[in-house]
Amino acid sequence: MKTIFSGIAGLFFAALIFSSCHKLDVPITSELTSQSFPTTAAQYNAASGAMYIALRNDYATSYFFTQSCSTDEAVLPSFGPNWVDGNKYVELHRHTWTKDNAWVNSTWTYFANIIGTVNQTISIFKGAPASASKTTSIAELRTVRALAYFWMMDNYGNVPLDTLYGATDLKTNTPRAQVFSYVESELKTAIPSLKTNVDGTTYGQVTVNLAYAILAKMYLNAQVYTGTQRNDDCITYCDKIISSNAYSLEPMSTYLQQFYPTNGPSAKEFIFAIPFDATTSSGNMFFARYDLNRNLGIKYRYSGSTAGGYTDPVMNQSTGNGLSNIQPSGPRMTTDEFYANFNDPNDVRNKQWLTGAQTWDDGSPIMVATTKKGYDQFYTGTDASYVYALNLTPLGHTSRNGATSFDLGNDEIAWNIGYRNIKFLADYTNTISRNQSNDMPIFRYSDIILMKAEAIFRGGTPTLGATALSLVNQLRANRTTSAALTSLTLDAIYAERSREFAWECWHRNDMIRFGKYENTWGLGKTNTDTYRRLFPIPTVAFQTNAKLVQNTGY
């Protein structure tokens, strides 16, 4: 990555200029004014840096947990006293959250901070002299604000539209369909002024293709948001990206490498990504470290660690008993229901999972030293040293602590339950903090291909000589050596999306659109309330705006 991020990070001093609080209107805390700044393209870029910082802040934490842990894709159970955390994880998993759930609150705040930062920045830019740089920069800001409102509408439904910095009047909820129209209008207004070049200079920054991708995603979900399907419009904006010839599908040989700590501008599929660099940016990026327990850091380190130019300097160093001196964070795993989508043994995407018996590179088993009681908390005999072969078992549907328990136990058996995703390979050269250097893609070219396929399958008009089946097979030709599909169903498209975008924050959106969000999965998720397709307006929002109206059901 990481040349481009260093360049962007150099612009991020603007974070000191634009400090955002948990409101849509944030105070100016700088002497910087429109009379003195910005004027040059470099100054506009620097001043826009605060927007990118706001976008980065909670994407890999709060946003991930609400998008994935509320689905069958990911679950973070408790292990004795570990990760109970006010029940915020079990509430997401079992669809029992309230407006006080910590992740529901912090996700709202994440969106609001992006919007507030953009509003503040635009208020300064508007007073600056007219220039091409000003026009482009404001268009970029409006695009990111539209993205934040798209996310907010997707998660919370009817939300307040507050787009004027310094306004003192509180806004009540705007109906979801009107928020949809606002986002659509903002993007279409911004498009003529957005950059069209796709290269290292625009990596991690707003281009016209980000606006196209947001519109395509909105139109694919229009039936959910507005009650009216917009499949042809989805196809139109997918085609704009396809016809640009700016992107291509990664072949099997490099599919996994596009998510490694060394990813960046070389990724052929990244339409828009959030850059992370542990050496130049603050704030934790938890995707990799939350997926493993203290025993699995070794296997994570040893799996494909030299592929794609990523070489781990601590590779092949063992403490002799299978334990690592590096302590990853708590294990975030998948459910049996989600893992069932990975049923093709020839698919490269299977390699994003750690499952079953774990071995060293030479094929020998990883052995872990503990005690009999440390291995099994229910052991009642005399304690003694115990060595076992590391083996990951499926999550199942019942905890060893009882059918209704979310607690897997606090022993080695429990710690090794659950299949772990290692898509965003952890950088174990960084042993000091959880910060990681994996850039996070928000939109990839493969999403454009599958969105177009789904839109056609749902009734849209085929274009550019493609059919839904040919598009799905186009993707699969770059992911598996198995034979091409000869027919297609919606469930097949859903399974393909599950395989392709695991851990990329789209699964909640997919489950709702495919009518699967009320299914049963994992450790006690049986709630079928359809109103939970929206999260409640959280407590933190009501603390600053009494005019808000709570979503139905809450």
Automatic annotation (TrEMBL):
It holds the Pfam family SusD_RagB. InterPro entries: SusD_RagB_dom, TPR-like_helical_dom_sf. Residues 268-554 form the RagB/SusD domain. The keyword Signal applies. The keyword Iron does not apply. Residues 1-23 form the signal peptide. One of its GO terms (cellular component) is cell outer membrane. SUPFAM superfamilies: TPR-like. It is found in: Cell outer membrane. Keywords: Cell outer membrane, Membrane, Signal. Belongs to the SusD family. This is Putative outer membrane starch-binding protein. It comes from Mucilaginibacter yixingensis.
